[in-house]
Amino acid sequence: MADEANRSAFLEIQGRMIETTGKLKHVQNQMRNKEGEKKRAYLTLEELKQLSEDTNTYKSIGRTFVLEPKSVLVEEQEQKLKDSEVALASLQTSKEYLEKQMAEVENNLRELLQQDPGLARQIMSMSV
Known about the structure:
The protein is mostly helical and 128 residues long. The chain has helices at 2-50, 70-115, 117-127; strands at residues 57-61, 64-68. It is 83% helix and 8% strand. The protein has a two-stranded antiparallel sheet. Residues 31-115 form a coiled coil.
């Protein structure tokens, strides 16, 4: 009976670990994408700042380019930069939370395996 309870506890912990790992990878991918957006906005902003005010600047909309004042494009890039920074801060918080959850799940698994060495042997025999 205890063996069955330990096995079901192991399956639950394993499920939580898989779920948490997936969420963590998703957050890391989102962070990587936001870093790219931030860098692109920063580089575009730097290039725009080098242009004189009377330079014709164009904004890409699909396959069309629309004439826009430089100030509008600068504001848009600054806003993209700020939005990316806010999103990155939020994602960093989520990542830290998920890492804590992952550590907790690992500790639970470790405790379970120390509590029932027979279960650890069964798991090892299944993975071979």
